[in-house]
Amino acid sequence: MDGRRFDELRPIKMKVGVLKNVQGSAYVEWGKNKVVAGVFGPREMHPKRLQNPTEATVRLTYNMAAFSVDDRKRPGPDRRSVEISKISSEALTGVVQVHHYPNAAIDVFVEVLQADAGTRCVGLTAASLALADAGIPMKDLVVACAAGKVDDEVVLDLMKEEDNFGQCDLPMAIVPRTGEVVLLQQDGKLTQEEFNKAFDMAYQGCLKVYELQKKALLNGEAQQ
Amino acid sequence: MNIEYYLKRDYIRNLISQGKRADGRGLNELRPLTITKGYVDDKACGSAYVKLGNTEVIVGISMGVGEPYPDSPTSGVMSTSVEFRPIAHPNFEAGPPQPESIEVARVIDRGIRESGSIDLDKLFIEEDKIWLVFIDIHILNHDGNLIDAGGIASIAALLDCRMPKYENGRPVRGEWAGKLPMTCTPVPFTFGKVGPTIIMDATADEEYAIDARLTVTTSDTLNAMQKGGTGSFTGDEIKSCVEQAFKRAPPIKAIIEG
Questions:
Q1: Any idea where the domains of chain B sit in the sequence?
Q2: Is residue A202 domain-resident?
Q3: Per-residue model confidence (pLDDT) at position B4
Q4: Is residue A2 a part of any domain in this protein?
């Protein structure tokens, strides 16, 4: 729709270490999406009854700013953001070496400043950069990217208009080193063949974003 | 922390690694499913009681008249909510919805919404007036796989649902005018991953042992998927789960429609 090839990502910019008061942070611009992530911890888990004596708890909080979308979003958590926070936390728990920090909490905050489809992928990509920036031991980075279907065509990385009028959205997050899929959602209408195609496309998209993530951690910033 | 989790997890993982399950089922075997439509048929527009093994769920459909969303002025509106009632499990507490129940509700909602199962375009009444369809899922006994049990019960209740009679700008209670227009029957399947093994229709105890789960909802197309849990799936595992979901749907669909 914006002149990209079917398997082409939107322009992406990444920067790490953007905030002062957190242990680690990252800022990602992805198309018109603007997302900042920050990490506190490992620190003592409060409330204490939620402490896990065998491992740390990774809590990601996804929040959209009121001004991030066309019609003002009522501030505070809604059902959508609760769900995204839950599955993103679970995706990160799989890579963080949680057994090093019993009873601790590792809090990741994702703030969506401007949204243009695919914010959960941008948020998770930024979150894992922020965790790495904070020096928290991980098996690998988590990287996310979406594929979808627009006008009966399987395409990579939907933008807002494509998402609204498209037939399907498939956000996914992987651990590139092992090829594990740690987050997967789908909604819309896909045949089995289209799903296989969209899955492979999103996977390849993730690998491209992963290269950028590594560059950003080495140089402090990266773009494509 | 939950002591039961630590006690049962190792035992069940050990069993599954030998290809066995605590209740003697095969790894891909579903528990017996019974559906009673119209379980509470006096007040609710549609209802269904579903028993999947020892998981018991009741779904009621309520319909009301309301305003459409500005971006779809001629379409009806559906909403899905799940209540984990304290009666259903010792770990369920009264209070505001927890992330777990919100996730279950949203996954079920997506399966129904994205399949276009409810013909929302036919729920237009007149300008600025449309029908609202509320799907309320009540868990009575939790023995695992709430997404599938709740999803199946929701569709069964929707198929049972009558349209209230509409007069002078509001619905007439207790009088009906035909059935809710439905187009297809989406069927959810949830797969659990335990170590390298994938099982279907996990019980509550087996859910303690699961690293990750994947829900796949299909009608004639793939309509909704959701991965949950801290573990992961490989690409090949996901593709084979999708294939299974398409393959296993017809008999369940027949029970729901029957």
A1: 3-257
A2: yes
A3: 82
A4: no
Of the candidates B110, B225, B231, the beta carbon closest to that of A94 is on B231
Residue contact B106–A83, C-beta within 8 A: yes
Averaged pLDDT score across all residues of chain B: 95
What's the rounded Cα separation, in Å, for the pair B115 and B131?
19
Give me the number of domains chain A comprises.
Answer: 1
CB < 8 Å to B234, chain A: 179-181
Residue A110 maps to a domain: yes
Confidence at residue B1, expressed as pLDDT on a 0 to 100 scale: 59
Distances (CA, A) of A194 to A46, A155, A210, B115, B185: 45, 10, 24, 16, 21
A3 pLDDT exceeds 90?
A: no
Is the Cβ of A80 closer than 8 Å to some Cβ of chain B? yes
**24-43 in chain A: CB under 8 A from chain B:** none
**AA identity, residue B168:** N
**Residue pair A24/A40 in contact by the 8 Å Cβ criterion:** no
Domain B3-257: top CATH class: alpha beta
The CATH number of whichever domain residue A107 belongs to comes to 3.30.230.70
User: What is the ipTM metric for this complex?
Assistant: 0.92
Q: Range of A153's domain?
A: 12-215
Decide if B232 and A180 are in contact by the 8 Å CB cutoff: yes
